[in-house]
Amino acid sequence: MDMAHRAWGRTLEAFAWVKGRYLNGFEFMKFHLIGLLGVSGFPLFYFIWNDLYPQPYENLWLRLFLAGLCGVFLFTSYFPPRIRAYVPLYAYITVVLALPFFFTFMLLKNDANAVWQMSTICAVVYVILIFDTVNMLVAWVAGTVLAVISFALTSDGVAIPQGALTGVPVVLFAFAGGLLFSHGEEITKYKRRMQTVAALGSSIAHEMRTPLLGIKLDAEGMRRKLSRAADGHIQPRDVEVLSTAVDRIERQVVFANTVIDMLLTNVRQEKIDPATFQHHSMAGIVEQALDRYPFKADQKDKITLDLQRDFRFFGSDILMIHVLFNLLKNALRAIAAANRGEISIRLEAGESDNRLIFLDTGTGIAPDVLPHIFDRFFTGSETYSGAGIGLSLSRRVIHGFMGTIACTSEYGKFTEFTISLPVSQGGPEQDARSQY
Known about the structure:
Layout: H1 2-23, H2 31-52, H3 60-71, H4 81-84, H5 87-109, H6 114-130, H7 133-154, H8 162-166, H9 168-230, H10 236-268, E1 278-281, H11 282-292, E2 303-306, E3 312-315, H12 317-338, E4 343-348, E5 353-360, H13 390-400, E6 404-410, E7 414-422
Parallel strand pairs: 2-4
Antiparallel strand pairs: 1-3, 4-5, 5-7, 6-7
Helix pairs in contact: 2-3, 3-5, 5-6, 5-7, 6-7, 6-9, 9-10, 11-12, 12-13
């Protein structure tokens, strides 16, 4: 009994290895579609080739058997997880039998006539569409060998039809084309994956500069205070400053972790979790963002605020600050590129919705770039796209708050982002002016 368990365990390990090494390119199959095609196609074409346009050989029982194998795919969603794990292997075997084996066997049995030569070419196309390069070759060779053996066992020594041999170059030509396009598609997929990884890595590095710079500044300040403490010159005010710096570093770490989570959420196209949403003052959020942003030289002097018509929104303070950071980075980059310009931020409270309007008078955005600035990984604008994730993530955040974000721009003159959010009914006790 123990030997049987060990043997079964080794079998499962072997299957897991084969599945990971060879079947990953096969799992994208649409199992239900294959089930529908098999269940309907095998009986239907028996009627066509046996009654409507009779062929020399037909086999109803073989067709029904293969239709039954395909029919299992219609119920795979109801399988328990343990059994569902074997569906890729079952599908692999079923497709080998239903396509290369069946069509090659029927080709041989029908003396390689024109009908079955064309049908076999169709089977080749299906195999090319279903499998990746390696599995395409393995499946067709396995199915063909099995078909030849079955033909030999059921044909009383009848030789392989000459027409089947003359059709081999056509099949090889079809496979050559399949290999070529499959290889090209794999290269394209690889490049897309690398672009995604590069964009994600670039965005994480880009977004982490802000909190890391804040931590660096606080660490330098703490070092100065601690050096004074080592000389015995510590003052009560120094203790308060050190405590505040530690609090800021902790908040920056929380902010950094949130940004990383949001970047991963954006790449995976997941929904933003509203579990941590609260009611916040938008004026308070703007003030926090400006207080936390690591401005250079006189950059902050270029910003004018109109926060008199404050409003409250329901969402995440950290994520909203992240949106403002993205807008600030883009606007400051545009102003630097134009060597002129200012930024204005104003709030407009309304009856049906509230708006935050963010305007810069930098370089503006080219008309052909403007429609794509919120697209993921779009890098057509050096000023407003970066790695192609920042504005896309900002839109996902605002949509998560049940709002919208829109952009208008005139190239060479200005760019204006308008964030519209629904009126919030939150109480004043949940003011976002408190530290996050």
